[in-house]
Amino acid sequence: MKKEILVIFVCMLLVTIVFPNGSKATADPKTWIVDDEGNGDYTSIQSAVNGANLYDMILVYSGTYNENVIVDIPLDIIGIDKEYLDGDDTGKPIIDGGGQGNVVDIAARECTLSGFIIQNAGDGWWPNYDAGIITDYVDDITISKNVIRNNPSLGILMGPANNQHVCTNIFSNNFLDLHVNFLSNSTISGNKFSNFGHTGLRLWYCTNTEVYGCVFDTQDHTGLADGGSNNCQIHNCKFIGLDQCIRFADAPGSVDYDVFNCNFYDWDYTSVYIAPVSGNLTFYNNNFFYTDGNYVVRDNGYNNNWDMGYGLYPDYKRGNYWNVFDEESEGAYDDYQGEYQDIEGLDFTVDKGPPVGGLNPYTIQGTSGSQDTYPWIIEWDWNKPPNNPALYGPPNGKAGEEYNYFVMSTDPNDDSLYYYVDWGDGTNTSWIGLYPSGETVVVSHTWSKKGEYTVKAKTRDIFDEESDWSELEVTMPVYVGEGCLQGTQITMFSTGTPETKNIEDIRVGDYIASYDPINQVVTTAEVIEVYEFTADLPEYYLIFNDNLEVTPRHTLYIDGREWTEADDAQIGYYMLENPPGTPEINQVSISSKVETPLNPAIIKIYDLVIQPLSGEACGYWADNNLVGGYN
């Protein structure tokens, strides 16, 4: 019995000392708030990491965090691109390394880092690299939706490790964007690599690693370089404006690769370079758009395949499209079909043309002697545009208040996505992203004026294919802090004795008199919202004709001008008047307009939102005058 107790105690002791900061796993992980202005639990990311327990979540709000962060326990660290409570910070939170060391060092497995701008690491190079983000000998890491920029050495350094995921990041102005060593069973997807000083992505001794949905875009450098990797895939990627798009390096060699569904544009030296020590590489269904580089491709390797035979529906795995081999003047015809191109009829694959028929391969440049036996005669259209986004959120609200709206699209190719939202008031979000396909994105907006707005959203994939617009009608009938003063008499709907009520006594469900602007008659509406404002009030209110008391941005119906803010109404303008209990609508000239200080300690402001019982209804009759509508 004593031995059993001792064994249990030792095991508990070992579990306790595994984690260097002494943290213990908790049954219910907590969420911690980091805000640089002091409104959260912590003001720095490192202090939050130090105070967290295993598998907690740390939410970091907009601001600049000048620190070098070391993450030594499993955590989800998520950037939130808005201010927390008070302050005026906007956009992704920035972690700035100040030009020293690594900006974020992830030294524990099962971590997520998402939603940040990572910048200004040190300039250390081999063997003591500095990086915007470094992970070393830790598995199960996800790095997503970050902007990794302005790091003079490496943007991200990863490995050796298993099950790493680098997705939907934007790399810019790093010397080498992403360097991975000895990764296995990992994915690099939906990233944009641009303006790098040497290489966008370098794979070294990786196994079963997949690169897809990425864009490599810069000048005079190498997009993707590989050495020593095997059983990997590169697909659904775009390479443009590079010196070399893909380089399978001289030593060590790369073997057993598949490269398919990629587009290559405007390179200087070659689209693909294969060194003599690299082999068993397969290329199919790619598009090569040669302009004036030294070589279309350069295959000096061994046993490489440039087609998959005569593939049929649904994948049609064949060869590649070469824009230098797609016209009759270049020896390319399409008059035959079938595996041996000996059956009359088009199949978009190059043959020898009538009356010969038969295979007409494209010869690959380099020393390997390779051929593409089934080259496409048209561009292989592997990328499809994203679906129209779902767009939803509050259909109505109060002008001056912020509301959240939600957009979500899926992409047939599972590409990363950008979103664009037009708020219908002359403002928009511009293109925001990248986001994974199928992820719901929250966007916020405040309308400053009353009105009916058509909100529109569309999405664009990482390859610039766009969806159509989706639309949502939104009504903002109320200004925050704007309306009529307490005591204002509201005309009620009545079939008998004319009745009015003080605006502060109006309740949801009451029926009041309104106005049909189309037929120009008094009509009836139901009150569906009553707003009482005691805060965010204006500094003054206006008295019209010694009677009507409204705030400056409340609207009056002015004959010939329709709905006009009270501040803009001038003496000599004509308001509409309806004596309670009558169908009469009169024009009443504004003869006086007095600006009066508003004391928020004793004055309350009210406004009403109405819904017509039938036909049209806009505004309500306050002290016999038509107010509270919108154009």
Percent in strands? 35-45%
- Tally of individual helices: 2
List the uncertain runs. 1-24
End-to-end CA span: 85 Å
* Biggest β-sheet strands, sense, barrel: 12 strands, parallel
Number of domains: 4
Task: Decide which structural class fits the backbone.
Answer: mainly beta
Overall mean pLDDT score? 92
Q: Which range best describes the helical content: under 10%, 10-25%, 25-40%, 40-55%, 55-70% or over 70%?
A: under 10%
According to DSSP, the number of beta strands is 60
Summarize the structure.
This protein has 631 residues and is mainly β. It has four domains: 16-165, 3 Solenoid (Pectate Lyase C-like), CATH 2.160.20; 219-382, no CATH class; 390-478, Immunoglobulin-like (Sandwich); 482-627, Hedgehog/Intein (Hint) domain (Endonuclease - Pi-scei, Chain A, domain 1, Beta Complex), CATH 2.170.16.
